[in-house]
Amino acid sequence: MGSPVSIRDARLAERESLEELQRRASLHSSTYRDQLLAHPDAVQLPAEQIEHGLVRLAEQAGDIVGFAVLLSAVERACELDGLFVEPEHWRRGIARLLIEDTVQIAHARGATRIDVIANPEAIAFYQRVGFVEGEGAATRFGPARRMRLEIDRP
After folding, report:
1. pLDDT in tens for each of the 154 residues of the chain?
2. C-alpha 154: how far from its chain's center?
3. Which has the closest alpha carbon to 43: 8, 10, 18, 64?
4. Which residue blocks in 4-153 are alpha helix, DSSP H?
5. Domains of the chain with bracketed CATH
6. What is the side-by-side order of every strand in the sheet holding 142-150?
C-alpha cells in the first residue's frame, strides 16, 4: 500500500478538495454518471458536517486519498452518509480503514449499528466489510440498497 494511511477530522478549508474527490470517485463509476454530469450540484459536502466533526479523511504521504461522513446516532444507529476514495487508490484498503474508523466513532456515540444506502456498484464492498443487505432505497438518481452493519455495544 506504500506509505501509511492516517485518518483524522477534516478541516473546513479542505471542503472543496473533498467535493472534488467525491466528484472524481462518483464519475469513475457508470451507475449514475449521466445524472451527475447533468446535475453537478448533487456533489456537495455541507460545511456543517465538517464543522461538527462528522467528516473523517484518509491521508497518505500528505495527500487526501479518501473520506467518510458518519452522521450522529439516532435511535442507536449512525448513518454512513458518504464514503469516497480516489479512484487510483481503490482496492488498497483505504475504504476498509475508513469503515473501521467509523465503527470506533459509532461505538463512542453509543450506536449499535451503522446504516448506509449503497449504490449498486458498492454493494459487494460493503458485504466484504460486514454489512448485510436490507430493503431497496430510492435515491435522487435511481435505485440503491439500504445496508447495515451491526456493531458491538460500546
Report:
1. 478 999 999 999 999 999 999 888 886 676 666 666 666 676 688 999 999 999 999 999 999 999 999 999 999 999 999 999 999 998 999 999 999 999 999 999 999 999 999 988 889 999 999 999 988 887 777 788 899 999 975 4
2. 22
3. 18
4. 15-28, 33-38, 47-51, 94-108, 123-128
5. 5-150 (3.40.630.30)
6. 5-9, 55-60, 63-70, 77-85, 113-118, 142-150, 132-139
